[in-house]
Amino acid sequence: MTTTVTPPETSPATAQKRSLLPKSARAGGTLHGGPIAYAILIVFTIVSLFPLIWTAIAASRDNQRLAENPPPFWFGANLFKNLEIAWKDANLGEAFLNTTIVAGISAGTIVVLSTIAGFAFAKLRFRGRNALMLIVIGTMMVPPQLSVIPLYMMVAKLDWTDQLQAVIFPSLVSAFGVFFMRQYLLQALPDEVIEAARVDGASSWRVVWHVVFPAARPAMAVLGMLTFVQTWNDFLWPFLVLTQTGNPTVQVAVAGLGRGYTPDQSLIMAGALLGTLPLLLVFAIFGKQIVGGIMQGAVKG
Amino acid sequence: MRARTLPLSRQRSGGGKPIARKALAIAAVVSLGTGLLAGCADDGGDDDSGSSSGGEGKTTITLGLFGTMGFKEAGLYAEYEKLNPDIKIAENVVERNENYYPALVNHLTTNSGLMDVQAIEVANIAEVVGTQADKFTDMSKVEGVKKDGWLPWKWEQATAKSGQTIGLGTDVGPMAICYRKDLFEKAGLPTDREEVGKLWAGDWKKFIETGEKYKKKAGKDTFFMDSPGGLINAVLSSEEQKFYDASGEVIYKTNPAVKDAFDLTAEAAEKGLVQSQTQFQPAWDTTIANSKFATIACPPWMLGTIKGKSKPDSAGKWDVAVAPKSGNWGGSFLGVPKSGKNVEEAQKLVAWLTAPEQQAKLFKVQGSFPSAPAAYESAEVTGAKNEMTGDSPIGEIFSEAAKQIPVQVIGPKDQIIQQGLTDNGVILVTKGKSVEEAWETATKTIDNNLDK
Amino acid sequence: MATRPDTAALPSKGGAAPGRPPGSPAPTDQEKRRRAKLSRRWQRDMRWSPYAFVAPFFLLFLAFGLFPLIYTGWASLHQVELTAPTDMNWVGLKNYTRIFDDEFFWNAAKNTLTIGIISTVPQLLMAMGIAHILNYKLRASTFYRVAMLAPYATSIAAASLVFVLLFGRDYGMINWALDFVGIDPVDWQGEKWPSQFAVSTIIIWRWTGYNALIYLAAMQAIPQDLYESAALDGASRWRQFLHVTLPSLRPTILFTVVVSTIGASQVFGEPLLFDANKGASGGAEHQFQTLGLYLYEQGWVNQHLGRASAIAWTMFAILIVVGIINQLISRRLRASS
Question: How many domains are contained in chain A?
């Protein structure tokens, strides 16, 4: 049957063979989305985006208008004014830099460490593998709400208060990442490929470098995105350990916006909006990584 | 069994785009490395920053505040910096006290991460005085600070049994009743504030009776008061003992004053006199904008809230009458932790910020009512006016109310008990539950929350 | 890599370095020694490299994850308040046994179960569907991918404000729409099932795209020719989905089920913000208070660190029990099939 698998820009014979395939054969990435697919996607997109869009609408209004009913559904005049106030008041430039460092290091490290650990759990044989994997999953099962209290005691002793490493290091513990990469590699990394590399004399590190990382790229991109967002949006712990006058992250910096006896919701929304925009940019960049070769595998006709 | 093959994305000779893959891995390793280096480097560098080196030999004083303080907006920092050129002031503000206070507790218990000045809200002051007094300096010993510079009950709230005063009072929230003149008129009630005050002088029951009169004439689409929470809060705040007795025991279930307040509010709810709303939620905001109720328990800052949520045509339609009994709602303190780096300078700053002149300025800009009686004679207070209340002399009304407030016994879990009575108690009566059911839900919740 | 997987030689037994192709001359002594050294290095690599790979996670966990767990475990055996976390009074298992009589705990447990089921099952099904659609060749696919994670990226404060406005009783948009079709306004925050439905909706909104992305990444790894063979065998698109996509995705589906279950048992952000009150009681009658929220209330609002720690560890124990039951059931199923 189909034992020959060759790259798409291939011999005319195979191309001809492909064109004879029924339409349904070109499932997965090579099939075009039909109108139903687009309809579903559009509904889904609207539902997903509308709170974010409403945040922008609220940020463009003033507090008084937001209290009225019905609430505003279109933009008002204050968007740039509120954004500017929010930016200056919260000193967002510095916060963006700090948070990018924190989230970037966090995401990058977690992705790398999770991939190699996930690979070991998925494909390598070693004593205690199952027990250790169960421990990894077990660490996720304890609710984390209280952990910040002893963690703060630790950080206070280490004299790390108001330093970025106090936020970076605890975030590096990611059982989720290890579990995720393990499951992904179980499915996406055929044993034969690893064997082939071994036969060629590759040590484990070379296998990781040349086989595992390329195979895991979509999952690494996804894990990177999810971790980046989670770290970016984290509030409880950074708020406890960082200060606005020291090394704030974005969520810490915007926590003071709109203050007064009557909170100014439009300013709070402006801060929330500014805090979210960089994430959308990150998505756009990393989103391309998920596609991989599917698009290249598309066959015309 | 078909041989497993690699997906198309991997079927490049050489395993895909080597550059992208290598770049990703290198980036990850580099960022990890940089992070570690940065981490090591930061340790040395940041020791001296944060307090002393404000640059050019200046001392930086840091404040940890929550949303209602308003010093920066009133220009007080700039003024102090001008008077003291070697001082720089930096503030850390959180909008919500619900976020601020737990963090403050954590910082106090580890004695780490504290600012030179920390604000404390009146809802938390009892607990801080009771459990963390040893972390604060004694503000009564600061030069120029005299006990009689503040309202007596305000001073007492921040003073421990040992006599140590851990914080100086900033603002207070003396309650009056704000009412809509136009809605009262429609319901056949008097509109002059003296007359209105006489309607219910001295007794909250008379307030309810006035509400019934209002409801009879005013029709279905309007309510007498904004919320059951506001009502029970106002009633309880005017008592001398509510949830704790003088020895510190919790007495909320046995104190007749509490049960009476609960029953009174439940009665008002059953009679349809209060809206089925919880204060400060978006729906409640809308009832302000849509002029749905006629009265509200009103500290000075509530006028600011009303103004912030009202449509422009409501301006001038409100007035302020004396409440049946005076009580306090809101207010804060400023304390100086012992672990700060600039204790003396911080103490001086706090004493200045809470001095009558500054409190009066703050009132003008922020609406935070002074806790220093001397400020009541100032022009800012005596001449104070608010858009919503037109020409009414609100400064005088609130000053009188402030002086009438009893010295109330406060306890560490006051807020939890209060919340239980409102959010898990009287609000249920407005949703159709019986008084007994509501009381039971409230007390069960409160007892569970108090139980260590 | 120049070797193709299907034509590669199988590794020789014992995990030694690859055997030499037949017909080559016998190795010299020097070669033999070099091969032996390589073989030892190879064996060491095979033996110890897995530990080296998993070590970073465990080291980081030992440094930053273990102490909090031990501390909360220790605190759960004491009566200790947040205002004095080092002032612990030993009470043994009292914090655990009191949970049996704690009607608020069991109320929260029931709520967690119902909210968990309502929010997790539709969420994962929809996520699978969306991922499948996104796997097609689409125009502006990056835009859809960005939109998909937007809910997860939207700040919780902003999202909860929107949903409170949507689900408001008097002025909410959903009630306004219901009014159009003649249905009475629903007290979304006040009554039990409407409030749980609303909280579940928020959870579904927030996490569907997240899971869809995870499924999408896994779908990218399914080899093209599996679909082709199935198609040549005459399978329709739906059957291909059932017989190619789903089986290949099994490890990832297991992952999302496990993680979503754990997440559902711990949910507290969404109900906390839906209430908008200062406390964390999950509604006036605790109608949508989950275990995670109850834990938060006891620990952070009421400051009972000991009690809250016991609740946290009890939640952990419940998950273990669920896991064990799950294992037993699936083993039974496999044995009987």
Answer: 2
Domain match, A215 and A261 both: yes
Cα–Cα distance between C131 and B146 in angstroms, integer? 69
- For each of chain C's 337 residues, which pLDDT tens digit applies? 444 444 444 444 444 444 555 656 676 888 888 887 778 888 888 889 999 999 999 999 999 999 999 999 999 999 999 999 989 999 999 999 999 999 999 999 999 999 999 999 999 999 999 998 888 888 888 888 889 889 999 988 788 888 988 998 888 889 989 998 989 899 998 899 999 999 999 999 999 999 999 999 999 888 888 888 888 888 887 888 888 899 999 999 999 999 999 999 999 989 998 886 667 899 999 999 999 999 999 999 999 999 999 999 999 999 999 999 988 998 888 887 6
Which of A60, A75, A102 is the endpoint of a domain? A60
Q: Which amino acid is at A175?
A: A
Are residues A139 and A37 both part of a single domain?
no
Give me the domain span that covers residue A132.
Answer: 94-291
Q: Distance (Å) from the C-alpha of residue A174 to the closest C-alpha of chain B? A: 15
Domain range enclosing C185: 102-325
Examine residue A78 and state whether it is found in any structural domain, yes or no: no
Angle between helices C141-153 and A35-59 (to 10 degrees): 50
CB-CB under 8 Å, B283 with C168: yes
pTM: 0.88
- Domains for chain B: give ranges and CATH numbers: 59-173+331-379 (3.40.190.10), 174-328+399-450 (3.40.190.10)
Distances from the Cα of C110 to the Cαs of A73, B62, C122, in angstroms?
38, 46, 19
Contact call for residues A117 and A133 (beta carbons, < 8 A): no
Say which residues have a Cβ less than 8 Å from residue B334's Cβ, sequence separation at least 6: B63, B117, B118, B119, B120, B167, B168, B170, B350, B353, B354
Q: Based on the domain organization, do A49 and A105 belong to the same domain?
A: no
Q: Determine the Cα–Cα distance for residues C289 and B316; give it in Å rounded to an integer.
A: 43
Contact residues, chain C, for B282 at CB < 8 Å = 161, 164-165, 168, 171, 276
Instruction: Identify the H or E element spanning C322.
Output: helix C305-336
Contacts of B307 in chain A (CB under 8 A): 262
Tell me the pLDDT band of A12, cut-offs 50, 70 and 90.
low
**Tell me: the pLDDT tens digits for C61-70?**
999 999 999 9
- A247 in Cβ contact with A163 (< 8 Å): yes
> Which one of A126, A200, A219 has the shortest CB-CB distance to C1?
A200
pLDDT at B427: 95
Helices (H), C17-102: 29-60, 66-75, 94-101
Residue B279 confidence (pLDDT): 93
Counting residues of chain B whose pLDDT is more than 70, the rounded percentage is: 88
pLDDT at A108 over 70: yes
ipTM of the complex in this document = 0.87
For residue C257, is it within any domain?
Answer: yes
Indicate whether A160 and A274 sit together in one domain.
yes
Best to test chain A binding among C71, C220, C278, C302 (most A CBs inside 10 Å): C220
Among C18, C141, C231, the residue with its CB nearest the CB of A22 is: C231
For residue C218, being part of any structural domain is answered with: yes
C97 touches chain B (CB under 8 A): no
Interface test with B, best of C285, C286, C288, C304 (most B CBs within 10 A): C285
CB–CB contact C6 B14 (8 Å): no
Contact C209, C130 (CB under 8 A): yes
At residue B26, the pLDDT reads 54
Nearest CA in chain A to C313: A142
Co-location of A280 and A147 in the same domain: yes
pLDDT in tens, B25-81: 555 555 555 545 444 444 433 333 444 444 567 899 999 999 889 899 999 999 999
Query: Residue B100 above 60 pLDDT?
Result: yes
Q: Give the model confidence (pLDDT) of A243-263 as tens digits.
A: 999 999 999 999 999 888 888
Structural domain contains residue A75: no
> What is the enclosing helix (H) or strand (E) of B87?
strand B87-94
